[in-house]
Amino acid sequence: TVCLRSYTDLTRPYSLFSYATKAQDNEILLFKPNPSEYHFYVGGKFVSFRIPKNIMESEHVCASWESTTGIVGFWFNGKPWPRKGLQKGYTVREEASIVLGQEQDSFGGGFDTQQSFVGEISSVYLWDMGISTSLVKGAMYDQFADAPIFGWRNFPYEIVGEVYLK
């Protein structure tokens, strides 16, 4: 499960969260191909979620996937969307490179500037389990009952390029 908040005026495709392994560059990917749609990838395959167009508003999204059932949960600004199926029984590999705001076309690199995010990203959290709507709402306000694997405040990072942290 990954949750994050973003704010941008981009209308072109961009990546928000990329979890790549040496075997699969789109092991887990949260990608926005246009202003009214999100794609959530697991193991190189994806499902789509249509959303209302938000003009100049921040968006909070969470996407969750469970290997045993293949069920993908998606929440937009705290509201759940109908669940979808994807990659039932697939195993996500553990050794990974995580990048925010850019899709990895290879492990830790292979970036396409036309898919880069320009804007603000905050409140990024990752869990190794499915989460409930109440936990999604907690993530929106940075308050949790179940601690994530890592969270925004303890997210290890390296700045590459022109990034401003506030």
From TrEMBL:
Keywords: Acute phase, Calcium, Disulfide bond, Metal-binding, Secreted, Signal. Residues 1-166 form the Pentraxin (PTX) domain. GO terms for cellular component: extracellular space. Binds 2 calcium ions per subunit. InterPro entries: ConA-like_dom_sf (IPR013320), Pentaxin_CS (IPR030476), Pentraxin_domain (IPR051005), PTX_dom (IPR001759). One of its GO terms (biological process) is innate immune response. Disulfide bonds join 3-62. The keyword Secreted applies. One of its GO terms (molecular function) is metal ion binding. Its cofactor is Ca(2+). Gene3D superfamilies: 2.60.120.200. Its main location: secreted. PROSITE patterns: PTX_1, PTX_2. It comes from the Eukaryota. Pfam families: Pentaxin. Homopentamer. Pentaxin (or pentraxin) have a discoid arrangement of 5 non-covalently bound subunits. Belongs to the pentraxin family. This is Pentraxin family member. It comes from Chordeiles acutipennis. The gene is Ptx2_1.
